[in-house]
Give the backbone structure.
Amino acid sequence: MDSSNAEAELSVTASSIRITDVTKDGDILTFAITSQKFYSSGGVCVFRTYEDFDWLQQNFFSQENVPGLQGVIFPPLPPKALPSLLNTASKSLKQLGFLALGHDWQSYCKALEFYLQQVATHPILSKCKALDSFLTKSESPGKQRGRKGILNRLSQAVEGIRKESHRDVDDFFQKERHKNTNRAALSKVATEKILDVVLTEQKLSLACGHFSTCLHLCVNQDDEAAVAFSKICLKLSDIVEAVMRNFEKVANNNISTLGLGLDLEARYEEAEKEMLFRRTCKLIELETVKKNTEKAKANKRDAMEEVQKATEKEFSLISSVAKQEIERFHSSRVTVLRSFLVGWCEKQLDTAKECAKLYSQYLDACKNLFSE
């Protein structure tokens, strides 16, 4: 057994985990991760690349000593970011969605930070020794060759479509699969729609910036009439620039709150879908073992019954863990999404108040200008 998979108490507080900086070297992003030690005023700072995050996720997958591991809903690790793709907007948006937006990779860093906080508060994953090593050891673990765990991604599963439609023996899981399919589709659509809104706001902001600059070209000081017209153009340019800044703030608010929340919701629904699929695969395996046991000859029946008992026990453990995970998942997703929505409302309200106050000032200035 890999020693990195052994249970250990996490030595840092989950709430203190932050990604404070990111540096770029070609297509490699290096993240500065800080955290606070338990019962100590001392802090820890480590530097990690995406390969290190992927190593950590693989260690979670390959914990062979954890009963019912296949029933865990693993916090979704964001896809790898390639800075070179930012030169091609369509490719970066297709790959990362909201995480490709924002200044200096702020959205992407926030998503990775939330991932670390989620695994650090998970009742099972937080005990993985690899997590504490990732957060506290100075050496980079990503160069170590990670093993492929017992878990395969949904897209890599053989005969996946057939198994997904397999009828479950437990109504609880059958209904949950149906609900998950609907939620996954709806969250994906909602994320795409709000992304379209943000991209439109950014385009409007850019257009306002061009219009504001063009108004400066109309300034002429040659005669009295031209001077009066120039004053109007300059004032209008200031107003359009204020509109531009408002569009920028509204778009950034959408990205940092609602956008990130919906992106996380969509990725988590896929994570639950993968867990439900793994359990369905184990159910099919159990049913196959039962059929083989019934057909087994007398001299092989005892051995097959032992295999059946072991498979039944494993399936029971997976189902037990899965039910706990689903309950925890729904409680957590409501809390997290509500937090993002409240943050979104507060930020947009503050921006609207600030904008209304500024527009009122410009209105008074225009009245004074025309009364001269």
